[in-house]
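ok so for the tutorial part 2 we go from a plain amino acid sequence to predicted structure tokens. step 1 is just haveing the sequence, like this:
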Amino acid sequence: MSASSEPPPTARAPLFALSLGHGCADLSSSALFALLPFLLVERHYSFAAAGVFALTAEVAAAVFQPLLGAHGDRRAGFWLMPVGLVLAGLGIAAVGLVEGYAATLAAVVVTSAGSAAYHPEGARWARRISSGRVNADMGVFSLGGSLGYALGPLVVTAALVPLGMSGTLVIQIAPFAAAVAILLVLRDRRRELTAAAQAARAVVARASRWGPFVRLLVFTSVASSVQTALLTYVPLFLVDERGTSPGASNVASSVLLAAAAGGTLLGGLVAQRHGRRLALIVPQLVLVPLIAAMPALGFVAILPVVALAGLAMNAYISVTLVLAQEYLPAHMGLATGLTVGLTSGAAGLVVTALGLLGDRAGAGAVILAIAPLALLGAGLGALLPEHSSPAMETRAPGAA
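step 2 — the prediction. this is what the tokens look like for a chain of 400 residues:
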């Protein structure tokens, strides 16, 4: 099969299974944040206590993803995907069932650790089974994560409104089902692809490019900061400065997340057809005027702008995963873990700093401050090499 030919549907099943697992892992992560209002009402926790839950989830993800990714680089790590999904499901269920603050905090850690375990190995396997259109295929893998993250709050609401906190038992079904799907769909190719990747590891070890990888981490941290800041402060701006109800502001959040899911896939397709640098730089440049216009708009007028911003803000995700793997081909798990986990932690720090500005100058000023971050991201994207080193093929070692 040539790299340009389309594979039959049965050949795409492993990629779709991995995308499903990615979606359920990220659904578990976003469900943690969607559970916070229910915990405040049902358990009477303070806002500070809820903040500790959120911080713990972010820190756990930032720590576990690189560690487990590095483990997968040294040893066969296929098991991290199904086990991670099961742990994420058990943790989500436990958040609603356990009593006591410490026990709930422990359940949050289990959920984050499970979700973190899936990402590096899932991205590695998405590359291994790539049809040769690695940028587009990684876009499909990343699309699952974006959709799952967007669905998390809806699933939590649908489960907990009729069932109360015990509704978390229903949420765990999704990651459990994804774990089973991955085991069934990938079992026949597991040994073949693992053996091929191990045989190629010594060849690609000399191709590691740490300098470009560090620059990629800086770029991803800035782009992730823009993404997280928009998700955080656009709804707050609508409530605080436009008098919008919390329910209506959530509509804007839903529009942003839905468009972001499409942007994830679009970024991979653009990179496949027109080059990776274009997919990194242009969306960040597009974001600058869109973000700068938001503080002058009302609720209705801001929705199409938010939709366009959503398309642009997630375009980098699949491209940076591919580049991270190609810059460090012998350390794909570590590269993915750092690119996803560490940069999310950095984005959390940036968003916290923007919150200090918001306390002094308002949410509109915060949104205006996000625009220069997007411009900085475009400049950083221009510094990244377009291609991997000569020792690294377009198709990863062990790819089908």
